[in-house]
């Protein structure tokens, strides 16, 4: 007989046998054991295994600008209160020296920077950041205050100061950062090509009217730290100078990039400033820089004091 529909299956499935039950139990047991073994091996490998060493971070230390770009920019914010004569001497001095070596100059007006109630001398810091923005491929930025003159045009910034071997031969190591008895001292084993900030001392401390910074991420960090609003609002007796001495002594990341050099290398003082000069820090013929210090303090006159030195400068055709 043929049915129109297949016969209906029973709704009562056969009961599992003892053999099927034992087989399923064993499989579950072995699965748990395998999981425990894998977990144990993983934990052991994490605890005692060697972790691959990440590749070292390569930091590029700039020493040479691309072709057609200046290797050094001389930065001098010129105080509008200076006499036209002094302004002219200062600007021509920088331009003549820069032309000799293929450098560029930058003369910002300090009044263009928002300093709030801080002294105008704080313009030093944003002027350097401004220069780095205008010359994005230049390795070295040479700050020189407007009371100083470059006297020896034959000396280049690189060969006279920043070349690796030269810098290692002139940097002052293991000496108090702030003379005469600061407990914080300059590092003794720094490499010249790892230095990003160079300046000299006088008897009062760090002489930040003449210094060199190498472009890089560290330079940005350093200038931002130096220009912190807290330091500008804190009534340091010597404004940005004392703020600099503070951060150099309290921040190892800054001290590790700092080189102090003898004063005659880049910041010799005139006879009128000799009482503040370090040993051999008074200007002598052939020195790179002469600094007139506080020549704008009455009864002194920057114009009268600068003129005799300006007359000794090389006369270059323009």
UniProtKB/TrEMBL annotation:
One of its GO terms (cellular component) is mannan polymerase complex. The chain crosses the membrane at residues 27-48. InterPro entries: Glyco_trans_34, Nucleotide-diphossugar_trans. GO terms for biological process: protein N-linked glycosylation. The keyword Chloroplast does not apply. The keyword Transmembrane helix applies. Keywords: Glycosyltransferase, Membrane, Transferase, Transmembrane, Transmembrane helix. It holds the Pfam family Glyco_transf_34. GO terms for molecular function: alpha-1,6-mannosyltransferase activity. This is Alpha-1,2-galactosyltransferase gmh3. It comes from Trichodelitschia bisporula.
């Amino acid at each position: 007989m043929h049915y129109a529909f297949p016969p209906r299956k029973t709704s009562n499935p056969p009961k599992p046998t003892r053999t099927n039950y034992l087989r399923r139990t064993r499989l579950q047991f072995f699965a748990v054991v395998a999981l425990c073994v894998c977990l144990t091996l993983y934990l052991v490998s994490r605890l005692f295994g060697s972790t691959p060493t990440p590749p070292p971070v390569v930091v590029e230390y700039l020493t040479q600008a691309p072709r057609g770009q200046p290797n050094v920019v001389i930065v001098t914010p010129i105080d509008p209160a200076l006499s036209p004569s002094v302004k002219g001497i200062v600007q021509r001095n920088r331009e003549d020296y820069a032309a000799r070596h293929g450098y560029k100059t930058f003369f910002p007006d300090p009044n263009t920077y928002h300093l709030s109630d801080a002294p105008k001398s704080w313009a030093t810091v944003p002027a350097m950041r401004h220069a780095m923005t205008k010359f994005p491929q230049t390795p070295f930025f040479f700050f020189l205050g407007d009371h100083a003159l470059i006297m020896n045009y034959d000396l280049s910034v690189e060969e006279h100061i920043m070349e690796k071997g030269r810098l290692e031969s002139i940097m002052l190591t293991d000496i108090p950062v702030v003379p005469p008895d600061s407990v914080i001292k300059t590092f003794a084993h720094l490499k010249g090509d790892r230095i990003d900030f160079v300046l000299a001392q006088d008897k009062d401390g760090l002489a930040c009217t003449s210094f060199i910074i190498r472009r890089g991420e560290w330079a940005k960090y350093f200038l931002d730290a130096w220009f912190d609003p807290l330091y500008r609002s804190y009534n340091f007796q010597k404004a940005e100078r004392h703020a600099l001495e503070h951060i150099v002594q309290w921040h190892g990341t800054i001290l590790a990039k700092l080189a102090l050099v003898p004063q005659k290398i880049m910041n010799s003082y005139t006879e009128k400033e000799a009482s503040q000069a370090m040993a051999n820090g008074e200007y002598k013929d052939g020195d790179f820089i002469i600094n007139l210090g506080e020549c704008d303090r009455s009864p002194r006159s920057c114009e009268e004091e600068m003129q005799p030195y300006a007359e000794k400068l090389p006369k270059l055709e323009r």
